[in-house]
Inverse folding.
């Protein structure tokens, strides 16, 4: 199936006092209609900025310095490169909310404090879906009910500050889903929710995905959520994709030492061995002070002299301990024919 969104070589930079930093560095991946791509990685690795770049919402002075983001609009029109659109123009506004919706990491980013929850959602429905006020209002209440907000008719009349954090998060999810977007960018959509609501919201996202064939870019640090939801996983480290593949490959045959560390630090219920959880030593480097070559090198127990050069993201099918799957890619010298061991 043709991809709905195709990101190629996306590079998003911020000028700082110490020079320009690449928060997103040469990132390439694509998302298929109806599928979920999970984006994982430690805090600060560029996950949110990847999503914000797609909607052209990178905060100034940040900017997209290179790459393309091809999006195939509803109705079978020719793909457009979102990078070429004016970030304040009508074309991207038409896409935001209507075609591509985002659940922001911080709910108050997208909720307006001076309007009631119901009005905001209804407004968005009326704007994008050519519905009259009454219809839009009914859709808003229905959506609030579907995200598990009790007494939605009453809640719709309340302002964001009257809702608890978890409820605001759900209201925002309702707002994102009310226009039935073709692509949902979900940035840590369930992190602020307790587990029962979390499961409900994930179920809701899945059922809407099945109903409307919606694609999802799911950003999370929760490997459990990835295991539950993702059809494909992209692992980022310091702005770059370091590993990519199907969840089975990533979970059972993680190749990059960073991915291996990420998984070793996740508790598994019922794991019998006395093995302790392993923390990855060290911290994510500051983008201003990235080491030469592979950015994970200083924390890596398997580093080699060649790691001072940046490895490519390549199919790992040739590696001895890799899965025989060409879609599994890794950026690590360990799987290079010449340098690998
Ligand atoms: N406004 C800004 N000015 C300068 N640098 C920024 C700005 N916003 C983000 N960055 C840099 O971009 C990098 C990536 O940020 P991003 O928000 O995408 O991380 P993230 O992976 O979403 O992290 P988290 O898991 O904490 O949400 C960060 O390391 C940060 O230093
Ligand atoms: Mg983030």
């Amino acid at each position: 199936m043709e991809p709905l969104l195709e990101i190629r070589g996306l590079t998003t930079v911020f000028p700082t006092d110490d020079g320009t930093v690449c928060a997103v560095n040469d990132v390439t991946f694509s998302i298929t209609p109806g599928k979920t791509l999970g984006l994982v990685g430690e805090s600060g690795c560029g996950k949110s900025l990847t999503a914000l770049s797609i909607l052209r919402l990178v905060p100034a002075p940040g900017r997209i310095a290179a790459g393309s983001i091809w999006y195939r609009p509803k109705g079978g029109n020719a793909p457009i490169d979102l990078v070429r659109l004016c970030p304040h123009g009508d074309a991207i506004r038409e896409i935001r909310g209507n075609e591509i919706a985002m659940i922001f990491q911080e709910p108050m980013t997208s909720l307006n404090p001076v309007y009631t929850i119901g009005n905001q959602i209804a407004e968005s429905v009326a704007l994008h879906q050519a519905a009259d006020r009454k219809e839009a209002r009914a859709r808003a209440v229905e959506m609030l009910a579907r995200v598990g907000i009790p007494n939605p008719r009453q809640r719709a009349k309340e302002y964001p500050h009257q809702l608890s954090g978890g409820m605001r998060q759900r209201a925002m999810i309702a707002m994102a889903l009310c226009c039935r977007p073709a692509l949902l960018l979900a940035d840590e959509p369930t992190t602020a929710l307790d587990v029962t609501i979390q499961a409900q919201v994930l179920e809701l996202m899945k059922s809407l995905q099945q109903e409307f064939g919606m694609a999802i870019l799911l950003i999370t640090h929760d490997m459990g959520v990835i295991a539950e939801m993702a059809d494909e996983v992209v692992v980022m480290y310091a702005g770059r994709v370091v590993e990519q593949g199907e969840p089975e490959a990533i979970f059972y045959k993680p190749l990059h030492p960073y991915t291996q560390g990420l998984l070793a630090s996740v508790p598994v219920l019922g794991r019998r061995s006395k093995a302790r959880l392993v923390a990855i030593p060290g911290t994510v480097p500051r983008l201003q002070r990235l080491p030469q070559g592979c950015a994970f090198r200083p924390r890596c127990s398997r580093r080699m002299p060649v790691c001072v050069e940046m490895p490519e993201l390549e199919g790992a099918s040739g590696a001895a301990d890799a899965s025989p799957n060409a879609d599994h890619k890794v950026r690590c010298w360990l799987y290079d024919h010449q340098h690998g061991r």
About this structure: Residues 258-335 form one domain.
